[in-house]
Amino acid sequence: MKTDSSKILVLEDLVKYYGSGENLVRAVDHTSLEIERGKFTAIVGRSGSGKSTLLHLIGGLDRPDEGKVWIEGKDIFSLKDDRLAEFRRKKIGFIFQDFNLIPSLNVWENIVLPLGLDNRKPKKQDIKEVISRIGLTDKEETMPNALSGGQKQRTAIARALVTRPAIILADEPTGNLDSQTELEVMSLMKSCVTDFGQTLVMITHDEMIAQMADRVIEVADGKVVNC
Amino acid sequence: MKMTTRVAFDNMKYGKSKNILIGIAIFLTTMLLFIVPTVGKGFIDLQFAATNELYPSWHALYRNVDSDTARQLAAHHDISRYGLRSDAGYFNLKDARISMMYMDKEGMELYRINLAEGQYPQEEDEIVISPGILHELGQEGGIGDTITVPYQIFRGGELDLTQEKNFRICGFLKDSDTGLEQRIYTSLISEAFLKEEIPGEELSYRFLLQIKDTGDPTTDDLEIKINNIAKQFGIPENDININSDYLMANYVDPSTLPAIVIIMVIIMLAGAITVYSIYYVSMSQRIQEFGKLKAIGATRRQIRQIVLREGLCIAALAIPAGLLIGTPVSKAILKAFTVFANRDSQYMSVLTELLETGKVSICSWWIYLLAAIVTLGTVYFSLVRPMHVAAKVSEVEAMRMQDTGKNRKSCRKGYEYLSVSRLTWRNLTQNKRKCLITILSMAATGIFLMVVATVTSCANPKESAGSSIVGQYEISPVIEENNKEHPERKWTEIQQNNPMDETLKNQIEELPGVDRVDAFTNIQVTGDPFDEANDVNFINGIPEEYARELEKGITRGKVTYEELKSGDKVIIDRALLHWYPDLDIGQKLNLTIYDGDRSYNKEIEIAAIGNYGSGLTNYAYLLMAKEAADSLCENNSVCFYHVIADQDYDPALEKSLRDIVNTSGRLEMRTWKEQYDHYKSSMTITSGACYAFLGVLAVISILNLINTMINSVHVRKKELGMMQAIGMSDSQLMKMLQMEGLFYTLGTLVISIGLGSLAGYPVFLYAKKDGLFEITTYHYPLTAAIIISVVLLLIQVLLAVGLSRSVRKNSLIERIRFSE
User: Fold this and answer.
1) What ipTM was predicted for this assembly?
2) Residue A85 belongs to what domain range?
3) Which of residues 477 through 536 in chain B touch A, CB cutoff 8 A?
């Protein structure tokens, strides 16, 4: 693969179809894309346009029917499942709409979980710094069930940041939040990306949020129609 | 279909995996609840049927009854049926013993005597014989032919001089195998002949009777009536002979029922715990579902009905299946019993035949009904709590239920860093109650298994045989204390003409393969503290070769073999304390010692209490040095020759010894091999039955483990998917599931093996004290512990592999979206 160090993510003719015959859904249809390092990219599109599928393929959560995804010059689908999982925990951070925190772990544990899975012991100071950054210093031992939606999403952001991944993928991270919290979370994400120099790819259907991005990619019927 | 039934039915299909497990648990519970009473009742019925085929059907007989008394007895309101028998005399033949017996028609029926051909004797010169008798007489003949018989008649209490008479054969009896082997036969003569030979005033009968059935009499009720009637007619106790085998076979013995009931209660508990815990464990994931139903208007009663009907729907499928499979399994178990048991005996071969020909019906409709009702009751009992929990669900809380929950803490100290093992531990501690229920229900069966394994590992057939007989062969005189027909078999009579003499000893010692012969003495005693006058006990004189063994067996007190030579001290076997618990060391026993035709009193002190195998004690409770026991008697009191051979089983030597015993006619023999075979067969049957029973119980409780783990993964499908999304690899997932399973397994093993081993030891002590299987030495059931551990570990590994595969069946995306 031609390596251009400024391009952290390259999608090459990516295809993902569901169903067959009349029920065939072209979720991602021959899509190619390049995303630059350190930028905040928003993927927008109507419901059912294939943006979530695209994000899942980028994150290696699902395998494409055709095409390739290169992250930092690595074809992620050439990796076997265990290697791909390892790659994910090292290079990709996820933020989901419904937070997906582990209910049996407290805030601290949820944040250090990706490090633990990578057999790394966290530096206490680093974690404290991240927690302070997300404004949950007094909530380290709080269980997810006692957090508000905004606090949950902030915990999820911290979890995504803690491994210092190459790329953070966010799937409508403010979808379940009220407008006040939505703004707080967005500005937190943006500042974190800027401060830590990380790449953020975020799905949203909110035009206002998309405006905050460095680049907006529009998806319709599984294809990139505007970028 | 009613709404509740429809929802219950749909739920049943939706929660397929959980319901399959519940179905298996109910199926196994039904099967066990059916098998236990069926096999128990079947075996008893078979035994009874075999007894009915072989044993006479009279309840009791009164000896020495004259004609008048017989007439009066016949009119007694408690007697439903009676017959008469009178032994007129014997054929006078050198080696064969052929009795001449009169029996009326009822007597014949009560004795189950059927003629092979011909008819019963009517005329004075008619006789019924058997081919064996003809052979012994050295004559030939068929029905209508005449034979000459030399015979002696009982007159005035003794056999009269030999007479000879021509009889006409009017019928034939079949010879029995034992009869032919021992050369003992019966001929039947007519009443006319009896009355002609024995004068009316000397004529005495055996009065055979059956007691009238009123209500449902037990064996005890019948015995009381038999003794009462005898008392009314002045018939002495010694002249009463109760047909206990027949009574046991035909009337209820109340002691068998509790055993079956206890086993059934254990099964019910195991089944109930399993079904309950499967529901309990699955309930949390269904809270939302019940909440939704309530939110749209279902009442508490309807929710309870849904849970109940779902359970009953499964039971409706599983119970018939359990009964269906239980039927052939019960038959197979009974067949296996008869195969393992000794088929050489006539009794067992009749029993086997009854089973094989289906003459005894094994399955009763009421057992099917009982098993079905008890299982339904068990299912209902285990559903009560889940029904209650489901009905109590609050709509709002249930709808919101994702991360919430009444008992969830809002804050908890956590780990500074995480690893797969810490994640596992976190999940387990989060579900403490679920873990505990799963582990305890599995451990309960494990404990049972370990206790049974302790008994079976201690019950070593070689050790048991060695404990029940010293050496390889035991030869003793035939002793019968209360047989008026054989007064010569009383021990005090034998003492005066004892076949256990030096000649016999030398004869045995000269046989090839014999190392030595050890003689044990037997002294008959009565008196204090043996409160009943008829309670005859024996002092066993133990030879010096066994001094160490005797001293080693002492459990309380102290005495040396040398001190036991004084004749003033005895060791008592601990088994005696069962009957006389007040006996203690230092107590003086005022005994009457019987020595042939004389007796005298002697005070003997209890020097110690010991615990010995029946081989050493020869079933006597008082033990003394042989030298001392010998000095208490002037007569020859040697009662046992224990033959120490160079091989445990030597057919040639056994044959030689058997020849000596048979030739004597007054001796009998027990062999180590017989004891070994007996213990081996009974231990195989007992332990086989126990393990099979516990094996099914184990399967029932393992269903708990399977359900808990499936559930734990199912409930956390999204959580596991989430962990995988942020980087948990498949092997890490597998490791986590393995460790969770390992926790259940190790928890179960620690409790089962730990508590099971602890509980096993007192059971061993009890078995040893009660002489069960002649257990003497404790052997830790290591093999069983290893097997239980390996099986559990294996199941857990397979389960983890299966679960991890089933998790991976769904794509990561599907798993993450699971709850949506």
Assistant:
1) 0.85
2) 37-61+81-226
3) none
